[in-house]
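Re: the request from the purification team.
They wanted to know what the chain is likely to look like in 3D before they choose a buffer screen. I agreed to run a prediction and write the result into the notebook, where they can find it.
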Amino acid sequence: MSTQEIINIGALPNDGEGDPLRTAFQKINNNFSTLFGTYYDTLETYTVGNTANQIIFTTSANTFTQAQFQINSSNPATQDSQNILIKVAKNNNGLGAKWVGYGTSFNGNAVTSYDVVVTGGNVNVTASPLSTATLQHFISYQVTWVGESDPGIDISLDGYPAGDLMGTENLLIVTTE
């Protein structure tokens, strides 16, 4: 992660000793783009059998700070399903996570319980099915990381030389998410 850029505000108002406006706003932009990378996505996964703590979501704990998950777990063979909203924050020591689940609603019977654990360098959301049925879990999530997001695949145009990548007016390479 980059070092935070401090804006020089001078000793007194309008003393001419602080950073010029353009420099100050460049530092602001750099600080925000480095500090906050947020990713939204959806995921569909399955658990099989009633083995406890089956991983239904995982991400690296190195840069993870917090997340919000909306999970719909259902038994496709029945009308049983449940929805839950889970909010997670990694502990300051990086060895665990604090989380709260709320807003749980059921259609029919409950199908699983959840946990959030930090293990093996990952933050994992796990499900412990309450029956031996194969369960479907549809997850909508927002995760915030410290640092810059991992880049996607560089984009280039057919017919142009290899390595001739698309970029922005600021010479940033255009990538996929």
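For the purification team: The chain is about 10% helix and 45% strand.
Please add any questions underneath this entry.
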